[in-house]
Amino acid sequence: MINVTKSYLPDIEEYTKYLEEIWKTVHLTNDGPLLRRLETELKQYLGVKHLKFCSNGTVVLQMAIKALNITKEVITTPFSYVATTNALLWEGCTPIFADIRPDDFNIDPEKIRPLITENTQAIMATHVYGNACRIDEIQAIADEFNLKVIYDAAHTFGAKYNGKSILSYGDLSTCSFHATKVFHTVEGGCIVTNDDAMAEKLHFYRSFGHKNDDYRSIGINAKNSEFHAAMGLCVLPKVPELIADRKKRFDIYDNQLDFSRIKRPTLMPGMEYNYAYYPVVFESEEVLLRVMDALIAQDILPRRYFYPSLNILPFATEKTGVQPCPISEEAAICVLSLPMYPDLSEEVIERIATIVNETVALVDENV
Ligand SMILES: *Cc1c(COP(=O)(O)O)cnc(C)c1O
């Protein structure tokens, strides 16, 4: 069976080397030596000032909202993984959905402005598929209206915009290190800031808001373990190679797919991309469903990503009322992510491309 993604695992000997260290120190979690080593290496690799390694890519979104004292309206994207909206709702905020750009599916800055009210406190955007949002335009709006900017940068590990890690933008950026992402620690995530005081605050947040007898603020348990840090230390040095392997597969898809009836999201100028996902856009949901069926019949499992558009989730509309986002709603039913991972074979990619091309052509004939 070919899944949409497959986790990278290092040589088991490499991992057990770290396990032996853990068995020596008997330091299993709580700001341990491997976690500190991983944080140092991550900051170096990404070129960012402060980075806190946490337990996942969702709790860091919640920490970001809390740390910036956001409790009211947040303008956000309807085209993301559900964790983005969930974090806002969980923290008691009201998500206000701004529709996306039709070319790259990132939040459309032009759609943000008309939604700003006296209750708007922040913009929370996702760099969809690892491709940067209109960062400069979003920052200009935030500056003009005194809003905070949080980026859900879960897809962006290893990607750069204008020569800098995408994680260095916004008031706070978060990333997920889940097993399915470009870089992973099995479960894990991080939050990034340039601000010293904010970094200190997040450090306390991560660990119940206290250190020994110093009870400083409310907090949560967002710590991660030495076992997860060890996986990160094994995977991080391989990231450039893993991204290069992804790019090769990306190029094969690009060459093999017939783009007369399907489209791909465009890439932001100034991007150094990480090739995290390979989404294709069909003309209609009907075509998408036929392609999905044809692939599944061959034991190939693509994934509708992102589906559904977050503005139509019943537990969101309960709080927000109906907020139509026609471009996102259309994208959600027409986009399919094809299998993409570093050791996916060329033969399989060619097979997938053939199935996609033939199914699309057939639907065409039947119309
Ligand atoms: C994966 C993902 C998350 C959640 O990350 P976890 O580490 O699984 O909690 C959040 N946002 C986006 C856009 C994601 O793709």
From TrEMBL:
Biological process terms in GO annotation: polysaccharide biosynthetic process
SUPFAM superfamilies: PLP-dependent transferases
Catalytic residues, chain numbering: K181
Keywords, in A-Z order: Aminotransferase, Pyridoxal phosphate, Transferase
GO molecular function, one term: pyridoxal phosphate binding
Positions where N6-(pyridoxal phosphate)lysine occurs in the chain: K181
Protein name: DegT/DnrJ/EryC1/StrS family aminotransferase
